[in-house]
Structure formats: structure tokens, C-alpha cells
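---------- Forwarded message ----------

FYI, see the Isoquinoline 1-oxidoreductase alpha subunit record below. Original note from H. follows.
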Amino acid sequence: MTRFTVNNQPIEYRLDPQTPLLWALRDASNLTGTKYGCGSGECGACTVDIDGVPRRSCQVPIGTIEGTFVTTIEGLSRDRSHPVQAALIASNVPQCGYCIPGIAMAAAALLRRDRAPSDEAIHETLSNLCRCGIQPRLVDAINRAAALARGDETVSVAAPPGIDRDDAARAVPALIVPDGN
């Protein structure tokens, strides 16, 4: 049995320790926001945060992350209020949306490390693939997310359809990210 914390909830998986985290999240925990893309770690659709580091979950056996903290797109913010989610929506970045959860998780990790990343740092960090061609708008959206996180800008983003904003905010506890100290 493998134990770690997913979106602030302790979880014990009774799966083979070699099971990729992607499938534990999607199949055993029904956290389907993390997407299967290529299965080889190249595309980034399956990116999640493990102890503050963006990782391609298709390449992480659950047996190797015992005791860690994993955050998926569902744990980032259910009501879309996280600066990255708000900026992506306000900047009209998502098209088909398949790659967006992985991009949002990679961008959130970048902004925790660097509150004002350069365009080059954004390009380097966000190596996620998008077949819809959002890259020209993505750098501006991440810069906007950084401004939102710093409090330099505000935007209003509606809660997902069919979910009351107050209910959405209560559905997922506040994200607690270990600082490594």
C-alpha cells in the first residue's frame, strides 16, 4: 500500500507500487482533470505538483512518492480563483482545454518560485504541448497571472457552470504547499 496526500487529503492506494500516478489519480481517485496525453512524459497534459515541483504524472510510479503532497488541477482551485486559472480564462487562452490543466499546474509552480518570471523563463518552464496553438497568448496570460498573484491586477472569473461560487470555494480545502523547511 502506498500513502501520500492528494489535494490535502491523505490517501492510501492499494495498487501496484509501479502504477503510474496518472492512473491512480484518474482511475482510483476519480480526479480526471489530470489528462493522459502521450504516456511518455513529453506533452505535459498530465502535469501535477509533487511537493512543489511540477512532474509528469504518467512517468511517476506511486511507490516512489510515499509521504509526499500531490496537488492536481482540482486542488489548485475549484472555483477558478487561483491566479493562473483566472488569468488563463480572462486572457481567453483555453481552446479545446485538454492541455490546460497541465499548463496551469506547471505555471502555478513557476509562479511560486518566481513572482515575476521573464518571457524566456515562461517559455523554458512551460514545455507543455498544445495542438490548438495557444502559445502566442500563453506568455501574456502567465505574466497576467503573476500580476494577479502579486496583487498588481484583478480580474473576475465566473465559477464553473452549475456550481455556485460559495459552494465551489467550500468543496476543496485551501491549498497548503509544503515549503521544504
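H. also flagged this: Helices lie at 21-28, 73-76, 83-90, 100-113, 119-125, 135-150, 165-171.
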